[in-house]
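User: Quick sanity check before I run a bigger batch. Here is a single chain. Can you write out its predicted 3D structure?
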Amino acid sequence: MIDTVYAIINIKDLDKIDFTQTQVTSKDTIRISVDLSEFVIKWQGKEPTFIADGTVIPLQLLTHAEALELMHSSKWSIDVLENN
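Assistant: Done. Predicted structure follows.
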């Protein structure tokens, strides 16, 4: 089984992403951090060319478990109960 790689990317690089090379279908379906500064893409197998050639440099590369943990952090998720 090929592992899925999750990459945290700076939002300024959003227009450099070729979504045909990721498992995220478009910039309309990305997960964005609460402060709107970062987003997540993921892929399996071959690294996307925009990362391999240095056009986009990920802030972090994560496993599925690491990505899940990060998505539950306050940087990526708002606690609805806190806002009521």
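The mean pLDDT is 92.

User: Great, the batch can go ahead then.
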